[in-house]
Amino acid sequence: MKKILIIAIISVISYSGFAQEHDHGADGKTKSEATETKKKVMSPHTSAMAMVGDAHVHIDYSSPRVRDRIIFGGLVGYNSVWQSGAHNVTWLETNKDLIFGEKKLPAGKYAFFTVPGKDIWKVMFNSHWDQHGKDEYDPSKNVLMLEVKPENLENIQEELEYTVNKTGDNKGEISLAWEKVLLKLPFQVKD
Predict the structure, then answer these.
(1) DSSP 8-class letter at 28
(2) Digits of tens for pLDDT over the chain (191 positions)?
(3) Do residues 99 and 17 share a domain?
(4) CA nearest 48: which of 58, 63, 38?
(5) How far apart, in whole angstroms, are the C-alpha atoms of residue 182 and residue 163?
(6) Please, are residues 23 and 30 in contact by the beta-carbon 8 Å criterion?
(7) Neighbour-count burial for 171-181, b at 16+ CB within 10 Å, e otherwise
């Protein structure tokens, strides 16, 4: 009789542990599955694109959040190269030559690096577009470098956001907005 009682107790304890590990909610998911589903990606992958004249301009990036941090001059240091997003380097691809001021960016795919400054930012289009972060940044592979005066935003831009907008027949603008900074890069499509 004692053997049967001991086996019964062990069976109840084993089943109880199994039930806790596999406790399904109303949606049929286990607790661990539900927890994984609820986790938010901190820097989701996204893109921005537009047709400007005959040019298809596409930007691919991961979008980090401010999350109550000081971004520029804090998380992203002044006068340091930044991959202009999170994780992999942000890249831009265009099927037509783009003209920024008097400088030409040939059709192609480029890493988009910046060097934030308090008064002036440097923007670099680099031929090594497929890399993680800024670890492999090589200034000798810069195809084009611009200097841009940042604008101040009145309100916090929580997530890093790029936009590509058509502003005229063959004119457009690429912008980067994050925290309280807005960069605008006007361009023309070369005929």
Answers:
(1) S
(2) 555 545 444 444 444 444 444 444 444 444 444 444 456 778 999 999 999 999 999 999 999 999 999 999 999 999 999 999 998 999 999 999 999 999 999 999 999 999 999 999 999 999 999 988 888 899 999 999 999 999 999 999 999 999 999 999 999 999 999 999 999 999 999 87
(3) no
(4) 58
(5) 11
(6) yes
(7) ebbbbbbbbbb
Domain check: are 55 and 132 in the same one? yes
Separation CA 40–CA 165 (nearest Å): 29
Provide the phi-psi class of 95: left if phi over 0, else alpha when psi is between -120 and 50, else beta. alpha
User: Tokens standing for 188?
Assistant: 């023309």
Determine the Cα–Cα distance for residues 78 and 179; give it in Å rounded to an integer.
Answer: 14
Provide the residue range defining the domain that includes 177.
45-189
Shared domain check, 82 and 122: yes
51 and 33 part of one domain = no
Domain total of the chain: 2
